[in-house]
Each structure stands twice: as C-alpha cells, then as structure tokens.
Specification:
This protein is mostly helical and 213 residues long. The chain contains nine helices and five strands; from the N terminus they run βααββββααααααα. Helices cover 62% and strands 8% of the residues.
C-alpha cells in the first residue's frame, strides 16, 4: 500500500504542512499518543519502531504508519500489571507499587519490602506531578526496568520494546506540542481501560474463560 504523506522525520516539512493545511498540531500530537495507548492496551500488539521516518502526516490530518518489521506484544496479565502499577504511581501509593511488582514476579518475593517501597518512591517523585514538559512516562518505565535489574531480575524483552517506543512517541509528541503532558492523556485512558479489565467481575470472567479453554 502506498502511503502519501510527509514524514515526521522532516520537521520543517511537517511545520509547513501543518501551517498550509490549518491542522491542529496539538490534536495530532494527542492522536499519536492515544493511538499508541490503543495499540498497547486494547490490542496488546504494537509497532515497536515508531521513529519519525516511519510516521507520516497524511493530507487529511491522519497519521500513517509504515515498516512493521519490529512489533511488540504484551499479554493481558502483563498489561494489567503495568496498568495497576501506573495507577498506583499516579495515586502515589508506593507500597502498592512495590507489592504489585512482587505479585507480578518483576522482583523477587523475598526482598525487603520497606526498602523497595523507598526505591519506588524515589522513582515516583522524580516524574509524577512535575511541571509540564518535565513529565516522562518513558523515563518512568526506564527507571522501573533499571530497578528490577538492580534486584537481579531478568528484564522482559517486550517491556524494553515498550519503553523504547514510548520514548519515540513522547519525542514526536513533544515536537508537535511542547506542553504535551503524557500523564494527562494516560490518566483517563488507563483508568477507563482498567474498569473493564481489572475489576473483580473482569477477573472472574477471564478466569472462567481460561478454565473453559
């Protein structure tokens, strides 16, 4: 399929295209970020190389994506764990963050929980509720992955792809809208997804489906 658009790697051309067409660049930035959340959370299967050369601004304002040579997949259990961890960070409930890591097998079960809570707090206070432009979900994921390695846990390859792609998406989003706040976009999306996938009823439903094969 032929994609006819302006690559996001050509920033000057993107600026000209937005000015000439009258597109809302803030809206385009939001669409890019939300489309990534949809890939990860709704489908569990995401483009893992979303650099500017693989993304095109189409004539109608849509974002075209090419080159699916690197894809990432996140199973539902991992998506639920990540979502619960993100929500706990947003709520600044660092003890819950620590316990979720243990429950998900991301760190050893025999670690000192109080020490681990402090490690989570250090990471959370660096990135959550900071001034606009200083907030980075990619940085949060990077720090979490570094923390798990500190406790001699093997990092899952799919989480590395997730973090790398989040960084690319954040970078392009911030290029379009310097005031873009990934957390502001993540909060309603992640919490809405969680209602259908983390609640008691959803867990019972998934258990029954799993048992029935």
């Amino acid at each position: 399929e032929w994609i006819d658009g302006v690559p996001f790697s050509d920033r000057n051309a993107i600026h000209r295209a937005i000015l000439d067409s009258g597109f809302d660049k803030v809206g385009i930035a939001r669409n890019l970020v939300v489309s990534y959340f949809n890939q990860v959370y709704v489908h569990g299967f995401f483009h893992a190389d979303m650099h500017g050369g693989n993304l095109f601004l189409m004539k109608n304002g849509d974002i075209g994506v090419v080159d699916f040579g690197i894809m990432g997949s996140i199973d539902k259990k991992t998506r639920i764990a990540i979502t619960e961890i993100v929500i706990a960070f947003l709520d600044r409930d660092y003890r819950k963050v620590a316990q979720l890591h243990i429950d998900a097998g991301l760190v050893p079960a025999n670690i000192d929980i109080n020490e681990f809570v402090l490690s989570c707090r250090v990471i959370g206070e660096l990135v959550v509720d900071k001034a606009v432009g200083q907030v980075s979900m990619a940085k949060l994921l990077e720090n979490l992955l570094k923390m798990t390695r500190k406790y001699q846990m093997q990092t899952k390859p799919e989480l590395l792809l997730l973090q790398k792609t989040m960084m690319l998406v954040e970078g392009i989003g911030m290029f379009l809208d310097k005031d873009l706040n990934i957390w502001d976009l993540a909060k309603p999306f992640v919490k809405e997804w969680a209602k259908s996938n983390i609640g008691f009823d959803a867990k019972i439903r998934d258990f029954v489906v799993e048992i029935l094969g």
